[in-house]
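Dear colleagues,

As part of the handover before I leave the project, I'm documenting each prediction I ran so the next person doesn't have to rerun anything. This entry is a single chain, and its sequence is reproduced below.
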Amino acid sequence: MNIRQLEAFHATMETGSVTRAGEKLGISQPAVSKLLRAFADTCGFQLFVRSGSRLVPTLEARLLAVEVERMFSGTERIARLANAVRNREWGEVSVAAPAALATRYLAHALAPFLADQPDLHFTLQSRTSPRITELVAAQQIDIGLSVLPFDHPHVDAEIIMRFVMVCVLPARHPLADKQVIEIDELRNEPFISLARDDCSLMSIDRAFQVKGVQKRNRIEVPLSETACGFVANGAGVSIAPPFVGLDYSDQIVRRALMPEITMDVWLLTPNTRPPSLAAQKLADFIRVAVAPYDQREGAKVFS
């Protein structure tokens, strides 16, 4: 008994004809008949009888066909799985990103990709950049997005975006009519600040210090999205990445800030094992997703 005999039997049972079985398998009718005879000899019983021009399977053949169908269903599942793996549509991928990216933007940007990959199991963690670098180095996640550079022999690091922080104002704020906000103009504004362990806070505070401006911290929040929520409700102003607060487009405005405050986003991956095809495809999609905010090339656009 060999796979070609099983294929000939399976195709004949499916099509009800030796001729059509040969067409399905891409071989001649005599070749199918020869395989069927060999299979019947191996089994030790008759598989088909003639009824006029029709080929009728015996009871024994129908019993055997149930198991053969299961076998071929299994091989078809394996073939579909192999095809999904080859097309990077199957597997497990874990990503960790700072809250500014993970809270809202990545969910919005990656949803179309994941909708097209129903067999891909995706995990997104919100972590601080120092913790993300540790997770990548320990191979506990497949992809890390960090605003801190990381030099480690077991980690590959690539800058995928350099974004410019923007000034976030209530839509009816007196400064909203300006296209560029100077740090000096925020001197007396109630400021919605991020927590002290946020990696962007040091850069923001430095910009105020360079200009000799005292920042009036009124409210401290853990997330940039939360800061935008307070700004939308008129509680103050803030400085945030351009990709946060997108759900408040009617209540807040984003304005260019001078001097500029820029931050890099690094894509980190473990290099001690080959990345899965699914992880490679997702990393490529992330590069495309952040491209609209990458200020390393092209003009700045604020809305």
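The radius of gyration is 31 Å. Residues 299-303 have pLDDT under 50 and may be disordered.

All the best with the project,
I.
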